[in-house]
Amino acid sequence: MAQQHLLSVEEARARMMAALSTTQPEVVSLAQALGRVLAEEAIARRTQPPADLSAMDGYAVRAADVTKVPAQLRIVGEAPAGGAYDGTLGDGEAVRIFTGAPLPKGADSIVIQEDTTRDGATVVVNEAARPGQHVRVTGLDFRTGDAGLPVGRKLSPADIAFAAAMNLPTLSVHRRPVIAFFSTGDELVPPGTEPGPNQIVSSNNDGLGALIVEAGGVPLDLGIAPDNLDAIRAAAARADAADMLVTLGGASVGEHDLVQSALAPAGLDIDFWKIAMRPGKPLMFGKLGDLPTLGLPGNPVSAFVCAMLFLRPAIARMQGGDSALHTLQARLGAALPANGPREDYVRAALDHMAGETAIATPFAPQDSSMLSILARAGCLVIRPIGAAATQAGETVTVLPLRV
Ligand code: AMP
Ligand code: MG
Model confidence at 195, in pLDDT bands (50, 70, 90)? Predict the structure, then answer.
């Protein structure tokens, strides 16, 4: 098995994606909709603006009356926002109007108040106006029945404001997938406890939980399973109501790497388990019964990189959203040597300078246990298989880590 052909990251991801299904839709209020993915198109329930409205505070006039200025007009009424002037404007007449009020019948233009001088019931217009000036016409923004937001849209604050304006108090979105996970390792204790002489603190549980939340999933942390088959099986059994199971550690070929041996008798059907990438070669995907199961390496940086490359897109896909990796071009801040037969993900600082391409500067230590470096990294520089040595200043592809 150790000589098994290594899959490319892309091929492995495509195979995993093909095995995932989309969660059912549910209806949520706008207050709960941020970051959710639309399951049904959002269609406008009204026309906006519902009538021709003034865009400014000033006077509604007939443009023909103010082609020659100064022009004196008689003020015949007022139209506040939320109110209206019900009459029809005649020759030589003006209506005092405020932003958002409907344009009175007979008027075709708004003169802003800064261009007028008022004297009791008359107003002198000092600047000529053209028809349609400062008027927001009916349906300028959208009309009843317009397709506002498409299926698959991950909702932003602006999208939610738009949905509210379309008079949609609720939206149909995909249920957030529940991602169950546990770490394996006799050496691991949770943060906040006193590790024994041969123990370390588990960082993967909390890190992965946070990554799942950020990606739009619901984390179900099943804790730490010791390195024995029964404990691993028992932990996995607690994931049966989840949409996906992620195991952390115990996935390589060490004697104590027991995840596969534990789960095979429980029905684990492995699709792949070795990927041509660094960090993270021992990455496993399969199905435990019907449950998609992703096995991540235990090294904290490997686990995180694999989660960015596989779990994040999986969570997006399960919600029916955009699962593409959004990479950028950046300029390398320091030289990198030629790459070998595995795609390399190099932790790097990412510095943005106004108007220029961002600079990605790799950190010298790249050990896959170093969380201090990962936490400082702004991106992963993606080094294709067999990439030639690359000099500072050359353009490289990076995956931003802060999203
Ligand atoms: P494994 O994949 O179980 O062989 O683990 C590889 C390395 O990652 C070992 O040094 C483990 O101690 C470490 N490791 C495994 N799981 C975790 C975890 N949850 N948090 C921090 N380090 C871990
Ligand atoms: Mg282990």
Answer: very high
C-beta of 250 in contact with ligand 1 (< 6 A): yes
Instruction: From 103, 94, 113, 95, select the one nearest 54 (Cα to Cα).
Output: 103
Residue 218 scores a pLDDT above 60: yes
Distance 255 CA to ligand 2 centre (A): 9
Q: Which of ligand 1's atoms lies nearest the C-alpha of 282?
A: 2
- How far is 71 from 181, CA to CA, in rounded Å? 76
Does any ligand 1 atom lie closer than 6 A to the CB of residue 87? no
Which bound ligand lies closest to the C-alpha atom of 295?
Answer: 1
How far apart are the C-alpha atoms of 219 and 216, rounded to whole Å? 9
Which pLDDT band, with edges at 50, 70 and 90, does 21 fall under? very high
Distance 308 CA to ligand 1 centre (A): 18
Please name the residue ranges forming H helices in 140-298. 157-165, 204-215, 229-237, 259-263
- For each of the domains in the chain, give its residue range(s) and CATH number, in order of start: 9-23+176-318 (3.40.980.10), 25-46+145-174 (3.90.105.10), 53-136 (2.170.190.11), 328-400 (2.40.340.10)
pLDDT in tens, 250-275: 876 666 678 999 999 999 999 988 89
pTM: 0.92
